[in-house]
Amino acid sequence: GGGGGDRGRQEKRIVIIGDSLVVGIGCKEAPVMPKAICGRLAELLRVDVQWRALGVDGGDVRTIHRKVLAAVDDAVHAPANNASLSRGSAPVDAVIILCGLNDLKRLWMGRTSSVFRRDLDSFLVELRAKVGDECIIVLPAIPMEETLLPEPLRTVGIYVGQLFDFQKKDYAASEKLTHFIPKPAMEIWARAKTKGIIVAEDGVHPNERGYNVFGEYLAHHMADIMQSPQDLAVQASSLAFSAAVPAVSVDLPEQ
Q1: Rounded to the nearest 10 degrees, how much is the dihedral formed by the CA atoms of 6, 7, 13, 19?
Q2: What would the pLDDT profile of 245-254 be if each residue is shown by its tens digit?
Q3: Distance of CA 140 to CAs 83, 233, 242, Å?
Q4: Can you give the C-alpha Rg of the chain in angstroms?
């Protein structure tokens, strides 16, 4: 997937890996969330975004590991669409991995959060070897609060899911260029629900609106993560200069 557009603009390459959330189960047209993430990210960073979605319906980390690495190779070695890309830029700028829900479902098989962590470690070691040391890896938490599962299953799922998400957070804290994104605040879902239903008919997956809300939330976090130190320095200098000399207009280069 991906956007075309201005050949003079910088290009970012994003790979979204995961389970049914990446596939888009619950929607008539898929994949909704990768489009939402990358479309909003392109706006926020003012770049063209080329993306690839690698989803495995029902996939736990072991299954995702086994099935997507060859496709990651293809993404890494795909030619750039934008001739202005610098030779030194990473073939893939960021990988987002949505996982954990199907590992949680296998808890009854002894697949605890500590087993999930070992499986995640194994997958990410191989993934890092393919995408390189300069690629950003992002591990979002998986929100379960808005599912329509019957109680007490819903509450148990939320609690146990936090144990799996903690493993992502802990991994990210110990690895270079690896980031954890927490769940959206409940206020975000509350605002979304004022505009309509956000859960699919199965009561588990988001519908189109739910995917778009979560995707745009992730895009905002991704934009913060991917903003370069140089860009941040330019912004800070601009603010300081404008405060000191309010009558002067400064045209900064497009970011």
Answers
A1: 50
A2: 333 333 334 4
A3: 32, 27, 36
A4: 19
